[in-house]
Amino acid sequence: MPGIEKLPIEETLEDSPQTRSLLGVFEEDTAAISNYCTQLYQAMQRIYDAQNELSAATHLTSRLLKEYDKQRFPLGGDDEVMSSTLQQFAKVIDELSSCHAVLSTQLADAMMFPITQFKERDLKEILTLKEVFQIASDDHDTAINRYSRLSKRRDNDKVNTSAVEDVYTSRKKQHQTMMHYFCSLNTLQYKKKTALLEPLLGYMQAQISFFKLGSENLTQQWEEFLGTIGTSVQNQRAGRTAKR
Amino acid sequence: MPGIEKLPIEETLEDSPQTRSLLGVFEEDTAAISNYCTQLYQAMQRIYDAQNELSAATHLTSRLLKEYDKQRFPLGGDDEVMSSTLQQFAKVIDELSSCHAVLSTQLADAMMFPITQFKERDLKEILTLKEVFQIASDDHDTAINRYSRLSKRRDNDKVNTSAVEDVYTSRKKQHQTMMHYFCSLNTLQYKKKTALLEPLLGYMQAQISFFKLGSENLTQQWEEFLGTIGTSVQNQRAGRTAKR
């Protein structure tokens, strides 16, 4: 399919069975997009929630390590090597939790925001317009019915005029809401690809930044830090052995 | 504090107030370690659960993208560019979810396993031994009381002998359980540093592997892939413009 299909807005005035049939196809397509996007939205919401929880849990772990010095351990509470090692762990894990927090923010902005907008604004707008159009169609049907019943006994000019006016205004209303509804359905066909691709690109960019941030800044620091721990553990062992 | 403090096992037979007072200090230290480790265990469990959830949610997102082709979209369902783009997203996100799964496994083995063992085996053993020692002490006190009451009226040799035997066996039992309890409390002093450092080192190693795996394998593929998307989106745009 090379181009994007359109509902013919110029056909809304005639409102033929062919137009209604085409509308049915667009409505079915919209329902399928809406269903698929909602599933994707839920999966992305799970990723986002899990990422936030991971960020919070990592931060909590770092905080607990920082609080090691404040614990009251009657024995060996003043072990400086242990204490400074845990402080270094706390620092590095805190940096990692900052990376997670940056990732969370990026996911919020570049993934959750566009897909939520599409779901809550574009898809909801179509549902609202569908209802409005349904009400306008029903009102029009009622006016037509009233008019056709009245037209058999042409006795009351005032009632007749009122019925004709009703048909006119309800027809106009239906035409307007139908054009509006068609417009929204057509716009959705243009938006649907972006709606899927934008949050995915946002997700990928956020992950790439996260891996870059993590591997460039943190791992180098970590290797140095793990080297330091290794040295201090060895020193402690040597000290203990010498004292025996 | 250079060395590690010890409860003197050779003093368990005499069981002096000084020894009991020192035992109290060790019990207080053990309670503090237990409390701190439990908090750290809970924070690590949160990290682990969040990591598992993130892994599962990422996998679900990849699966949803793979299922795009199976969706029934009445309009534009046979758009090959969109379809292949989403399949590539699915593939890359699936690889990312594999990295997350590897991280989950490493966290399970190198972080959760050692801290769970320490909490469920070492710390629980001490609680059990404390109870056993308390029961043996109570039994011993009962036997001593019975003996001291009997000794005032030396009329029944059989009862006397039984009371002496009771004091002997309960004293022996109490001595044995006290030695066992002291041993465990001393062992904990040796284990407590490893118990804190081992899961933290496991966590760090797992994170380093994750960042290496992610940045070395994935990001290069991703950059190529994002380049490909850029090109195909441009081609699609150019095609659409040419057709107009």
So what's the overall shape of chain A? rod-shaped
| Total strand segments of chain A | 0
Query: Ranges of chain A with pLDDT <50 over ≥5 residues?
Result: none
Approximate strand percentage of chain A: under 5%
Helicity of chain A, as a percent range: over 70%
Topology pattern of chain A, helix = H, strand = E: HHH
- Rounded to an integer in angstroms, the radius of gyration calculated over CA atoms of chain A is 33 Å
Mean pLDDT of chain A: 87
Report the total helices of chain A: 3
What oligomerization state is this entry in?
homodimer
Largest Cβ-defined interface: A-B, 70 and 70 residues
Summarize the main sheet of chain A. none
What class do helices, strands and sheet pairing of chain A give?
mainly alpha
Q: How far is the first residue's CA from the last residue's CA of chain A?
A: 83 Å
Domain BAR (chains A, B): 7-241
InterPro entries (chains A, B): AH/BAR_dom_sf, BAR_dom, DP13A/B
Pfam family, one (chains A, B): BAR_3
Protein name (chains A, B): BAR domain-containing protein
